[in-house]
Inverse folding.
């Protein structure tokens, strides 16, 4: 396996709505900034890969327009995944294994503000038997949270505790959407949106875009003082139907973490893509991340949640702490699907 | 690259206007099982799955790989979803081959599907986009002006498009999986209604339900079959949409993508060194256009090869032996069907549409408004 590292990261602040910006206008600032940080232009990039979904803008082939935010001339080696940008990073990592190119540009963009996201996400369900029931993403997450409570694995106070810590961490993050000192007692007074989920236990819906530059071997060493080396990366999925899974556990995150080598050393920082508070508890248990690990110093998806981008931002935030020298070993995670069906885990190291 | 990659299993559904007998999971499972059987494998043997399909809106399921995980035995495995417009079937196979070549996985199932009968692709392709004129014409309306431009530039014989339609449908008669089995004469094609001048009804592809799957493995596992197809070159290339320097008739991205795969496979003269090609021709006139774009003919000369019958099975350079997109078009799967047919040819398993002695073949896919290209070269020799 070739050594591949994250050498730069750029994001647009996650906000409720980025008005009057189309795909090229979202993509151009972050891709050009990520390349500029390491002194590259599109001409120096060996492979470009992006992640987005047509169901946010509500039209097919929405990623086609995003290419116009790049200098795709002469024609570039380029691909796209209908998944979070973190999976585009995975494809770019695979592409770099081929050995004929040394750099890759990864980006993603998502405007959650364009439609009713919880209802749109119902379209991820089985179209014959489940979609007609109208199982929106908050109701599905509530089933999972209630299963946690029923199994004695967590209480509502635990959920509130997760939220308070993430949003307190976000105070120092200029790109976070919701931040501050949230009182646990006050959160527990909020009315239920979908029992046992209260408003604060759910993520905000944000607009954002993000980009990362990957480089292999000596090129990475030239581009960054402390590249964030990808020492392991793996993703796994689970059965789709909620009734076929133990919703209080995440065997796919556990397996992906094992394959990525999370347990092979001390973890300083973990950036977990847990949109709902209870999901952080599930993921920590699955990946074996104890109290000594700093979880989501950025504030995580509970503080900034742009669909299709929140996962790539976890990779960027984890890598940023290695690039800056603040951490030596970090875990980055992304999830996809209803109730953590599909999970991607990577281990990043400074040495 | 760390590893050689070989295709050892290929399976596809029978393609029809509507496969009402199969659900979407049933459709993908049918193709996957046939590919596994061909590779002498079971679900347990597969390390990883790479799936591609065209816009999710065609079936109304967002990220359908999540739902299809169960049908594909993916629980506990990685499943990866590619989406690059019409070229997606090709780019999906390319990602799968890179997983093997990069040493990430040894046995990869790759699959592409579309169930067009669940929706109406032409209207799904004609959305109202803010600040842009509405196309309201589907892909044919988009491509017709490009074809007119090609005819003007090359002074092509006006029957060229009809000749391609007749030839591809004759080839399709040899392929039991093809959607259309039409024994058409040149006169019948010419008499069909004009839809988007110069594209007649009989010069367009159908809307199909179908799926195709392949098993790609590293060298260590290639011995499971006696006739693996070795992947000798792969590439994906993309160009911008809005750019005054674009030539949409003979796109730079297509030329560059072809150069990539020829260079990687060590091919200097495609006409001499490639035995046959499966090329994405959704409207008949794209055969001569791509003959030139891919370097099989000089610029302005492609239509002559078609008119002289050189692209028929048994002649100098057979193109679209399976009947191609002109006979079968499950959009998201159409690119991978091209890649799979190229592999079938060099494996010698193309049955009645086999080109005698085919050793090296090109698989090609394109998408969007000719911005996206994916190609591979496969060979019977390692």
């Amino acid at each position: 396996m070739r050594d591949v590292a994250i050498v730069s990261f750029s994001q647009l602040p996650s906000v409720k709505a980025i008005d009057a910006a189309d795909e090229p206008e979202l993509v151009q600032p972050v891709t050009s900034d990520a390349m500029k940080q390491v002194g590259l232009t599109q001409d120096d990039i060996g492979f470009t890969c992006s992640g987005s979904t047509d169901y946010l803008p509500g039209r097919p082939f929405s990623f086609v327009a995003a290419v116009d935010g790049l200098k795709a001339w002469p024609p570039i080696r380029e691909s796209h995944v209908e998944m979070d940008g973190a999976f585009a990073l995975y494809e770019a990592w695979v592409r770099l294994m081929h050995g004929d190119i040394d750099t890759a540009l990864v980006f993603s963009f998502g405007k959650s503000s364009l439609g009713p996201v919880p209802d749109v996400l119902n379209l991820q369900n089985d179209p014959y038997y489940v979609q007609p029931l109208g199982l929106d993403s908050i109701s599905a997450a509530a089933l999972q949270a209630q299963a946690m409570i029923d199994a004695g694995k967590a209480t509502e106070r635990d959920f509130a505790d997760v939220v308070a810590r993430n949003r307190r961490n976000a105070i120092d993050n200029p790109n976070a959407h919701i931040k501050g000192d949230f009182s646990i007692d006050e959160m527990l007074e909020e009315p239920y949106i979908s029992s046992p989920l209260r408003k604060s236990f759910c993520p905000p819906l944000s607009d954002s875009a993000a980009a990362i530059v990957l480089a292999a071997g000596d090129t990475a060493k030239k581009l960054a003082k402390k590249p964030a080396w990808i020492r392991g990366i793996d993703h796994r999925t689970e059965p789709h139907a909620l009734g076929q899974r133990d919703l209080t556990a995440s065997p796919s995150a556990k397996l992906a973490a094992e394959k990525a080598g999370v347990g092979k050393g001390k973890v300083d920082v973990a950036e977990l893509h847990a949109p709902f508070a209870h999901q952080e508890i599930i993921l920590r248990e699955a990946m074996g991340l104890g109290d000594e690990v700093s979880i989501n110093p950025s504030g995580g998806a509970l503080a900034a949640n742009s669909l299709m981008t929140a996962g790539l931002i976890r990779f960027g935030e984890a890598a940023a702490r290695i690039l800056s020298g603040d951490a030596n070993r970090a875990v980055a995670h992304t999830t996809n699907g209803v109730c953590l069906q599909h999970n991607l885990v990577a281990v990043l190291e400074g040495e | 690259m760390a590893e050689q990659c070989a295709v050892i299993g290929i399976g596809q559904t029978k393609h029809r206007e509507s496969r009402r007998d199969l659900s979407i999971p049933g459709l993908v499972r049918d193709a996957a099982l046939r590919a596994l059987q061909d590779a002498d494998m079971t679900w347990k043997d597969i390390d990883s799955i790479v799936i591609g399909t065209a816009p999710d809106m065609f079936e109304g399921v967002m990220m359908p790989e999540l739902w299809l995980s169960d049908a594909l035995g993916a629980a506990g495995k990685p499943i990866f979803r590619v989406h690059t417009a019409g070229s997606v079937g090709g780019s999906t196979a390319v990602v799968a081959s890179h997983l093997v070549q990069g040493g990430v996985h040894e046995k990869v199932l790759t699959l592409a599907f579309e169930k067009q009968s669940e929706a109406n692709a032409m209207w799904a392709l004609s959305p109202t986009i803010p600040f842009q004129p509405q196309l309201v014409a589907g892909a044919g309306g988009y491509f017709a002006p490009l074809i007119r431009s090609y005819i003007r530039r090359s002074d092509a014989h006006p029957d060229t498009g009809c000749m391609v339609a007749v030839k591809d449908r004759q080839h399709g008669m040899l392929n039991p999986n093809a959607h259309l089995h039409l024994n058409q004469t040149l006169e019948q094609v010419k008499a069909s209604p004009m839809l988007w001048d110069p594209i007649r009804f009989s010069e367009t592809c159908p809307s199909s339900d179908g799926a195709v799957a392949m098993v790609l493995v590293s060298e260590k596992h290639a011995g499971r079959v006696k006739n693996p197809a070795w992947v000798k070159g792969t590439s994906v290339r993309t160009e911008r949409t809005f750019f005054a320097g674009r030539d949409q008739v003979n796109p730079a991205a297509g030329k560059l993508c072809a150069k990539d795969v020829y260079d990687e496979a060590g091919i200097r003269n495609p006409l001499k060194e490639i035995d046959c090609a499966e090329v994405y021709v959704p409207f008949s006139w794209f055969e001569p256009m791509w003959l030139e774009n891919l370097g099989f003919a000089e610029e302005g000369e492609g239509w002559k090869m078609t008119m002289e019958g050189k692209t028929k099975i048994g002649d100098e350079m057979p193109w679209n032996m399976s009947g191609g997109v002109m006979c079968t078009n499950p959009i998201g799967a159409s690119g991978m069907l091209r890649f799979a047919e190229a592999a079938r040819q060099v494996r010698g398993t193309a049955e009645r549409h086999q080109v005698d002695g085919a050793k090296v073949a090109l698989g090609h896919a394109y998408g969007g408004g000719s911005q996206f290209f994916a190609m591979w070269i496969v060979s019977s020799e390692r």
Summary: Chain A has a mean pLDDT of 97. Chain A touches chain B through 63 residues (CB under 8 Å). Chain A has two domains: 4-115+205-227, 117-204+229-349.
